[in-house]
Hints:
The chain has 9 helices and 18 strands.
Amino acid sequence: MALCSTWVPSHSTVFYCANCQEMLTTECLLTDTHHKHCYVTLREAANQQLENIKGRFKMLEPQVRNVCDVKQQVSAAKQRLEDAYVKIKQAIICQYEELWMLLMKNQEQAFLILEAENESLNQHLTQLVEDEKNYHQKSEEMKNKVQNLRKKKKENPVILLEEINTLELSLMAMEDFYSSVKEIKFDGERLRALEESVKKIVRKNKEILPRPWEYSQNITFNKNIKHKDLKVSEHGSEVFLKGSCSCLSKGQRAQWSSIVANQSFKKGQHYWEVEVEGSKSWALGVVEQGWEKRNLDRPLGRDRASWSLESDEGDLTALHGHDLSTIRCCNIHRVGVYMNCDKGQVMFYNVATGCVLHSFSFSGHKQLLYPAFSLRAEANCTVQLKIRRMIQEYDQFQQHNDQNDLLGEHSNSEGPDSGAFVESGEVRSFSEYETSSESEESLEESK
């Protein structure tokens, strides 16, 4: 049985409030909390509770008998999960192979154009050498023709003019050539256009790559730095807040309880995901170092030292100090948080759709930043948040890969290029984990 919030240890309990389902002392009866409520003796309350438990268990018995073997259901569910995992992994492999082939084809064609243009320009430059040799020879011939024409001054002027015109055309071509080779250049416009085209492809890809989940972190709740009412699971990935049975007065709402993560960041890019479907009122985001010393009984986002996405009975709001933005979105089960310390950016994602819910920008920030979380109690139930594990530990990573070595043998694509591509992608993910882990600092070390 729960105790009244105004209960004093030195006072003995005398009554039980049937409305609030709490044991009361004489002091409790003097407050307005239980005004006009129904009271019974502790013995009567115990008998009523016992009968209630017996009734509920009696109703549960048929369900226990009718439920199929849990072990069989779990086994079947695991098989469905494994089938889905293999199918989706193969689909992802195929998608990356297609992307890889598109890039390879584009690269191959770009190099073909590059080689052809380079060869063409080289041929042009080589031709200049041959042309110079020819024009040099023609210049000697022209010199002799000019001397011969001077000797023919008294001959038929019509024939003389025709020869002079022919000679002039050759002279003009020679003048143009020697004028062009004073400073030999080549036309690199096509080469530069090809380079710009490839740059444009890279820029377009950078608009969508890298994806936030490429910077995934394994985040855990700090069991030592939290509100007193919060309970953290043994592995540190879940936090619970039990609802109070106390009746709140009209307009009064339960208080918030906050907790920070063990990890902190000052540079680099980081990403983590949180399941929020276990609560209607929650907040998650990042806080500056020191925020936890005075704000564990408050939600995130109410000051300039925290940035948060908050759900208030399902209504989403982005908060930072006095800045408030309402977000139209429903049915959020998992939220992704991306933080770029170098660019001063925090972004919240709806993991199911990949859509950005809200983003914050800050500049010139030099303090450590911690993932942080808040919960507000709900009457007669326990609410929770769960941080998803994003990256396998090394031993699990190796073991899981060993178990799936034969995946490629059952796929339709068995080329050596695709296998190497997938392998490099998996190894890169683990190396990113090792690199990002080096940037983490525990909250205890920072103090």
